[in-house]
Amino acid sequence: MTLLSRIRENEWMDEPDVDPEKLRHSLRFIRRVNSLLGYTRATLSHLNRFSKNWKPGERIRILDVATGSADIPRAIANWARQKQFNVQVVGLDRHSLTAQTAREQIQSDQPINIVRGDALSLPFEDGSFDYVLTSMFLHHLDEDAVVKVLAEMNRVAKRGIIAADLLRNQRAYFWITLFTLFSSPMLKHDARVSVAQAFNETEVMQLRDRAEIPYAEFFHHFGHRFVLAGEK
């Protein structure tokens, strides 16, 4: 497989009639990968960079689009507690079972709320949040939908955005195939499909320009990962 172009295919975990236990298993795997390979830390590193401009005691509202099992919101809540920041996080996901799984992961003292909603038409007013994030979501979409999601994130973000995802290349495909060799059929399928339909740097920048968010810079991160991040 050359991966010179995106190979579009539905991931099984996105199916509306996905088996609940198989979905939970896939979400657990994603949480482990995000933690072990530093994907969650990559997102937090940019939020930490932005926090240098926050005022003491300032209330910061953050939206995580396509939150999955809410590992990003939970990491943000823990980070904010250590830094003594006044941060409130909303995690949004369209899939009812995924949203329910996210709620089950949240501790009662964490300032996180999970809602259902469509990433292509966020149910919030302009500038409702200081920062809008998304992670491991854009590769699920076609190009027009990615542009719409980025534009919607920009619309509801008062200060800036952070969009993190996979990079498509042969090495990433090899490693994810090896990494999931003894996993369930769903994990093996979805992991390979994820890389095959991810974007390369040139494509990411073209999508950024179409979404009209020139302030968002492209950053390479470990594990064949990129982050598109910036403040207005």
Brief rundown of the structure:
Helices cover 42% and strands 21% of the residues. With 232 residues, the chain is an alpha/beta fold. Helix 6 packs antiparallel against helix 7 (185-196).
Describe the model.
It is a single chain. The chain has a single domain (12-231), classed as Vaccinia Virus protein VP39 (Rossmann fold), CATH 3.40.50. The chain has eight helices and seven strands, in the order H-H-E-H-E-H-E-E-H-E-H-H-H-E-E. It has helices at 20-36, 39-50, 71-83, 96-105, 143-156, 170-179, 185-196, 201-210; strands at residues 59-65, 86-93, 112-116, 129-135, 157-166, 217-221, 225-231. Helix 3 links the parallel strand 1 and strand 2 (86-93). The longest helix has 17 residues, at 20-36. It is globular and about 50 Å long. The model has no long low-confidence stretch (mean pLDDT 90).
Outline the fold blueprint:
Elements: H1 20-36, H2 39-50, E1 59-65, H3 71-83, E2 86-93, H4 96-105, E3 112-116, E4 129-135, H5 143-156, E5 157-166, H6 170-179, H7 185-196, H8 201-210, E6 217-221, E7 225-231
Parallel strand pairs: 1-2, 1-4, 2-3, 4-5
Antiparallel strand pairs: 5-7, 6-7
